[in-house]
Write a structure and sequence with these properties.
heterodimer; A: 7 helices; 2 strands; B: alpha+beta; eight-stranded antiparallel sheet; 10 strands; about 45% helix; about 15% strand
């Protein structure tokens, strides 16, 4: 049997793949097979590595179990690691500590520098009780001169701080 | 517009015009967007999906640019129709499975398409022929602005647009360029180029995007990183990289002509001969042959065939297109026969 690709050398590698729901069998010589395997490696994208990266984050720091469930869609961080997909925008707040590291590993940065949508209000931000996250958002709102949003964030921070003081006393 | 009107329509991205169109087939930008406070499609209930669909449809009706665009409900299309839309690069394979609650908006010239409830609530895509990412960005940015004036997107100042998969978070933008690189393949330099592209955090894929192999020397190159850079910077980076690949391909084409022009001509004209005369032909073989004919045309060796015809044929010879042309389901063998007769009709064979 000769190679399906070059049609010259003897086919020694037999490959089966599914393209457009059709089973394709290919018989290739060693040289063509090597080329094809490089092409196939190229298709192995970042999303395939996601689960591995998410695992890596877990090893770096062990998080409290209570934090690893999204209160809005009930997705757990374990579910996310298995599927590679988050369940809703609030997952980003629920898993913000883990995701901060993960985003940095994927993109080399975890800070957005692109455009902002037309309707942005503090309501558009997932509800968070994290003072650190809120203060970070406030700082950015000021930097981007989105003062209305900054004022809303400032009020939420004050509210949370007062609540914490009350709890302590 | 009815779905069948698209059969003999040539999408703008197939026109074979625009900068570097001898090597660059098309430029595409897609943006992923989700609605605030609605679960992403993978966690959404049927009610949620229908709510997203109705909300987006309402927004569509308020925007002038969408005036001539048509919305197709996936659940109302059969599997051949859905495959037909995939073959036209208007939607993904993923959008075809579990059609309930999914829809696709397509503009008249097939420049714009919006997948509703794919992996994210909205996947907005704009395509142009040639290397034209800046123009493509201008259009998609304008459409996105209009939509975001009506819809409330899931967005964080810190992390940008929130998407189901964190690999898209940030700008949620993917810019990709479809290149025809036959000379780099023939001179066996392609793997070196693809490896370099991967090292620079760009992805290279086949003719039909994610998970597909390169066919007929067509490669799609796109950015992987979507967070930490502005959309303009990402586009500039892709453009810089693509220009280098174009230069490599041009050099390889010149080298082929200088080193062994008769062999190159033989390969090109044999391809033309087969394609104009075959009576049974697979899609894989057709694409390989069309690639050679396109190279011949781009080098000025093959006359009387224009780039647009070849680009169009790359789509028309696909399985669902042949079945739409014929108006019935065809077996694999019947498709190979119909494909060959289509090539003879279009290229004036015997």
């Amino acid at each position: 049997m000769t190679c399906d690709l070059c049609g010259k050398k003897k086919a020694t590698v037999h490959l089966t793949e599914i393209v457009d729901d059709q089973l394709l069998e290919m018989h290739l010589c060693e040289e063509c097979a090597r080329e094809k395997s490089v092409q196939m490696e190229q298709q192995f994208g970042l999303s395939d590595l996601l689960a591995g990266l998410a695992d890596f984050g877990k090893q770096v720091k062990d998080y409290e179990k209570v934090k690893s469930v999204c209160p809005s869609c009930q997705l757990t961080y374990e579910d996310f690691k298995k599927m590679g997909r988050l369940g809703c925008s609030e997952c980003y707040t629920a898993f913000q500590d883990q995701l901060g590291g993960l985003l940095k590993r994927i993109h080399g940065s975890n800070r957005h520098h692109g455009k902002t949508p037309g309707i942005v209000s503090a309501q558009a931000l997932p509800k968070t009780d994290s003072l650190v996250a809120l203060k970070q958002q406030l700082q950015q709102a000021v930097e981007q001169e989105q003062f209305e949003q900054a004022a809303e964030l400032r009020d939420r921070i004050r509210e949370l701080e007062n609540k914490k003081k009350e709890e302590k006393s | 517009m009815k779905l069948d009107d698209l059969i003999y329509h040539t999408g703008q991205w197939l026109k074979g015009t625009g900068p570097y169109s001898n090597i660059v087939m098309s430029s595409r930008i897609r943006l992923a967007r989700n609605l605030f406070s609605v679960p992403f499609p993978n966690k959404a209930s049927k009610k949620d999906l229908l709510h997203v669909l109705a909300t987006v449809q309402e927004a569509k009706d308020k925007i002038d640019y969408f005036k001539d665009a048509t919305l197709f409900q996936m659940s109302e299309l059969d599997s051949i129709d859905r495959q037909f839309l995939i073959e036209r690069h208007l939607m993904s394979h993923e959008h075809s499975s579990n059609p309930e609650g999914k829809a696709l908006i397509v503009s008249q010239e097939e420049i714009l398409s919006v997948m509703i409830n794919e992996e994210d609530h909205l996947r907005i895509q704009v395509m142009h022929s040639g290397l034209n990412l800046h123009e493509t960005w201008k259009i998609i940015d304008m459409i996105d602005d209009k939509l975001s004036g009506i819809l409330q997107y899931a967005f964080l100042n810190t992390w940008g647009y929130l998407t189901a998969c964190p690999t898209n978070t940030g700008t949620a933008m993917r810019g990709s360029v479809m290149l025809h690189l036959p000379a780099l393949v023939m001179t066996k330099q392609i793997n070196k180029v693809l490896t370099a592209i991967a090292k620079l955090s760009f992805a290279s894929r086949g003719f039909y995007g994610e998970g597909t192999q390169a066919r007929g020397n067509f490669y799609q190159i796109s950015n992987q990183v979507s967070l930490g850079h502005s959309e303009e910077d990402i586009i500039q980076n892709i453009n810089g990289l693509i220009r280098q690949v174009i230069e490599q391909e041009e050099q390889a084409r010149q080298a082929l002509i200088l080193q062994n022009k008769p062999m190159l001509e033989d390969k090109i004209f044999r391809s033309l001969g087969v394609i104009k005369n075959a009576h049974i032909i697979s899609s894989q073989e057709t694409i390989e042959l069309l690639s050679m004919v396109r190279l011949g045309m781009d080098l000025g060796l093959v006359k009387n065939i224009d780039r647009c015809t070849i680009n169009e044929l790359l789509i028309l010879i696909q399985p669902a297109h042949l079945q739409k042309i014929e108006g019935k389901k065809l077996s694999a063998t019947a498709r190979d026969i119909r494909r060959a007769s289509l090539m003879r009709e279009k290229l004036g064979g015997v």
